[in-house]
Amino acid sequence: MEKIIDEKQQGNSLVIEPKTENKRKLFIESYGCQMNFSDSEIVASILSKEGYNTTQKLEEADLVLVNTCSIREKAELTVRKRLEKYNAVKRINPKMKVGVLGCMAERLKSKFLEEEKIVDLVVGPDAYKDLPNLISEVEEGRNAVNVILSKEETYGDVSPVRLQSNGVSAFVSITRGCDNMCTFCVVPFTRGRERSRDPQSIIKEVNDLAEKGFKEITLLGQNVDSYLWYGGGMKKDFEKASPMQKATATDFATLLKLVAEAQPKMRVRFSTSNPQDMTLDAIEMMEKYPNICNSIHLPVQSGSDRMLQKMNRLHTREEYFNLIDNIRKLIPDCGISHDLITGFPTETEEDHQDTISLMKYVKYHFGFMFAYSERPGTMAARKFEDDIPAEIKQRRLAEIVALQREHSQYRTQQYIGKTVEVLIEKSSKKSDAHWSGRTSQNTVAVFPKENYKVGEFVNVKVKDCTSATLICDPIGYSDNN
Ligand code: SAH
Ligand code: F3S
């Protein structure tokens, strides 16, 4: 259970190719969702032009930036703990400056400076281009805060600095913000209104990545299916766009096609899909283009219609099943994963059983499961009492985690004896003699290294499995190399 939950919350620092003329050292680490990791690459790029190279040694940093997550209380507590560590280091290195980025910065604003004396700088997710100015202020001895949310900012013109350790897969952000207002969720408050990025700048970034040898990209957004480019601006203003803008707008299905055609040898993934916005067109594109991976992350949050409504998820259990059926009809071997929450206000045993029966219907490949955590300022916090005791939330969570493990095992077992294509990403954690990569369905596969290399597509035969991993033997290169 812990493993599943921790996966999204683990801190990770970046290593980038240093510029020799840069003299200052930046330590930047990220917590939370993939978007934060992607944003940190944008920040590293902006600061690289300001004379900063990244370092992995906290002790030698001139500037420490932590990109934070507010999604659950636990995520915020993790960051507070990290600040204590920075505090200890600052005693040895008093010149070190500390900045907080991301969702906690946006949520707490200047209150952060009062609550945590170690913090010099507070910058929200739409204000990273202001970092050079803000850092100058900090250097002159003043604290600096910019948490203004933007109607347009997509950082489309910043080419992110990439993690060099893998060099195989990269994130490409396509939308920012979220307009959905799920009642439990803090994201619409911390990341603002939904905006889409110019498809031309997305394609340019994808082409650049291909040139640098990357083999897989993941298009990122809080709700990718809602992607809509009509010349810039907020999604909610699309109605006011000119007839010309409307006629030439690019939606998510079209973007998928553009990206898949721009780099037919590159694997294309996307995350996250919201059931209420996912269209048949997008699924048809997945079917049509072999390089679009057969994998959909489709959070459902609950299997109970009553809970879905209370969460302001704008679909029913039945509609979700229809969507699953349509996906399976067009892409029978599609990997489907989920997010689920237990113990949302007023959740009964019956609601919980609805979640269990929904899981049994779909038999997800894997999922991220959470106990409900009330977030200040959200609709749920304002309107509903957080009335499910922690033990009940945890017991229900343990039940769905155990069920998911059974389903994951069922899914991996289906592959035994079959041949699948794997893109090699890194050495297996368990054995240096084995490679680790993923299948199109996003399932991890390991196999003996032989003479294969990171970044190659290999056909492998599945001989055994755990609930999370396919254990395989390599057969040969796939046609995709
Ligand atoms: N669309 C987003 C969802 C962001 S939050 C994405 O790109 O992934 C990720 C998951 O965290 C949600 O799907 C939900 O299952 C969980 N979550 C969000 N708010 C939560 C809360 N207040 N308590 C518990 N889990 C929460
Ligand atoms: Fe949050 Fe719902 Fe958007 S979970 S990120 S408000 S789709």
From TrEMBL:
Cofactors required: [4Fe-4S] cluster
One annotated GO molecular function: tRNA-2-methylthio-N(6)-dimethylallyladenosine(37) synthase activity
EC class (word): transferase
Location(s), subcellular: Cytoplasm
Binding site for [4Fe-4S] cluster 1: C33, C69, C103
Pfam families recorded: Radical_SAM, TRAM, UPF0004
Domain of life of the source: Bacteria
CDD domains assigned to the protein according to its UniProt record, in alphabetical order: Radical_SAM (cd01335)
UniProt cofactor note: Binds 2 [4Fe-4S] clusters. One cluster is coordinated with 3 cysteines and an exchangeable S-adenosyl-L-methionine.
Stretches assigned to the TRAM domain: 413-476
Keywords, alphabetical: 4Fe-4S, Cytoplasm, Iron, Iron-sulfur, Metal-binding, S-adenosyl-L-methionine, Transferase, tRNA processing
Annotated [4Fe-4S] cluster 2 binding sites: C178, C182, C185
EC number from the UniProt entry: 2.8.4.3
Residue ranges constituting the Radical SAM core domain according to the UniProt record: 164-411
Residues covered by the MTTase N-terminal domain: 24-140
Functional note: Catalyzes the methylthiolation of N6-(dimethylallyl)adenosine (i(6)A), leading to the formation of 2-methylthio-N6-(dimethylallyl)adenosine (ms(2)i(6)A) at position 37 in tRNAs that read codons beginning with uridine.
Protein name (record): tRNA-2-methylthio-N(6)-dimethylallyladenosine synthase
Annotated source species: Zunongwangia endophytica
Gene: miaB
